[in-house]
Amino acid sequence: MDLLDFDSENQNPNSGRETPICQRRPGIRPLRRINFNTVALSPTKRRKQSHAEESPVSEPLKLSALQFDAHVLPPPPSPCRGDCDRGGNLLLEVFSRLSAKDLVGAVAPACKLWCEVAHSKELWASLRGHLRLVDQLLVTEKVVERRSKGRLFRCRRLGSGEAVLLRVVDLELTNAGKDDGMPTSFLREAALLSKLKHPNLIRHYGSEILGRRAVMCTEFVHESFSSWQKRLDLQTNFERLIDIRGKFRQLLTGLSYVHHQGIMHRNLKPDNIFLDQQGQVKLGDFTTTRMLDIPFQAYTPEDPKERDRSGREMRRLWYRAPELILRDEIYGPKVDMWSVGCLFAEAASGRALFQSDSEIDHLFRIFRTCGTPTVSSWPEVVMMKNFSPKFPIYTGFSLAQVTRAACCESCAAEKDSLSQQAEQDRCEILQNLLHVATVLGPEGMLTLERMVTVPPSGRAGCDDSLQSPFFSWEPTVWSSKTRLHTVTQLWLHGRLTSPDESPEAYGRSRRRMDDTPPVVLGDLDDYPPVSIPSSLIPPQMVWNILNVMQQHQQNSCGAGGLGSLPRLPPGFDAGQRAVLIDLIIGLSTTLSLRDSTLHLAAS
Question: What residue spans carry the region label Disordered (predicted)?
Fold first, then answer.
């Protein structure tokens, strides 16, 4: 293990070299400083003076003539904890003036006591304020190297011993030799992770720029959803159901917190969702996130790839919502819910729900499974850039019918009907859905149907999914005698077209979610209506986002509120101010900053 050295390019290669002891010539005395103020001495006197300096005679210790009473003398000092504490405080005071390299390389190997003090939390708590981020870490292994992501190192954080992940981005390599500055994805992720604090989100320890390199330190997680899904194949269906229920409840809890902060993730896939040693779910990779604008504005569409997609980019495509593929200009957090639904089905069957290799193939796979959208089911679809009236028309599978065919023993007619509907080009899709229904059961399939509904207006959000019977009831092995939730029974037998028809079936809505700070959600049961389509975002979330923005603005302005904003200096040129405002607006558009941040900067 060693410290990362970013200054080795400017160091002298001969500095720090010493002649080994075995190669030193014996009898050579160390050089002395020459004193030019001394009087010239003869060789004999110089020899006598050098002998006197080499062998000084110490004066005998003189005992004091004072006599002390033995009863008055205090007992001799014995080693106690107080002395150890004073010695430790002295070492802390001395070691706090050394560099990190000296502490790790020279002080810690000296003895056990020095090693404990050199690695203590108290010492490094005082050092972190003036040390670089890379000087606080010990590299244990190199994880991976990629041009866009940079080099990833597993490190140990000095002082706490925590395992962390260090990401080092070479700006010249990332920008392909062009002077394009800092990647906006790096700045966006660093800014968001420094503000977002939640148990189901990756913890951020800091970011900094060191010359041509940018570094970011985050929590180290031991596995992703990809490796967890492989372990699910070794479990029984009931064990798999229990594990899926727990993991996706944590995933939805963390994602609900992100949405209530006014943020869309937009890149949920197995490689970006992690598990720590305790099995807790952690959301990561916020490089492609987007802030929600209130009122909503048209987003910049993603440019199509002019080259073949890599395997990593194709896997990302498997979990993208149809409105993103169709280039809808205005969309909301429900694009993440589509990704969660795809992950939900993949965890149950071990196979991706839409394993496509291009955007048009992805759309057609969605249409074969869920049905082709029409003007009556999704009126806005005809206005989207990538929609074509020449798309093939498919009738989607009814997941309630699939559930009856997979879970009910006396539903052979349902299987025959589904087989006729599938024909030859959709038999593989039908078999995958039947496998998913066998694992998830009726209540899990109801939750899945609400997540992978093509029109966003019919798609459930995080809070609605967490209140569904699958997450609120204890799962059991499905049988014909299993007691189902009322909503599930109505849906399974085709008598429930929308969960809004019986809101009392889900029970009372949560007044304050565990994943949202108290300042975000108030104690109101009814939220005032807003002039924003409810298909994109519910009114409750709108008011929560506005409260979060207001809180950030108050924290930025200080206790005095808006009155404490700094004023322009006297004699400030109005033309120069207009140029700066234009620069700030362009920068905020590039970095996808909040409106409140833009207003504060302009003020």
Answer: 1-24, 500-519
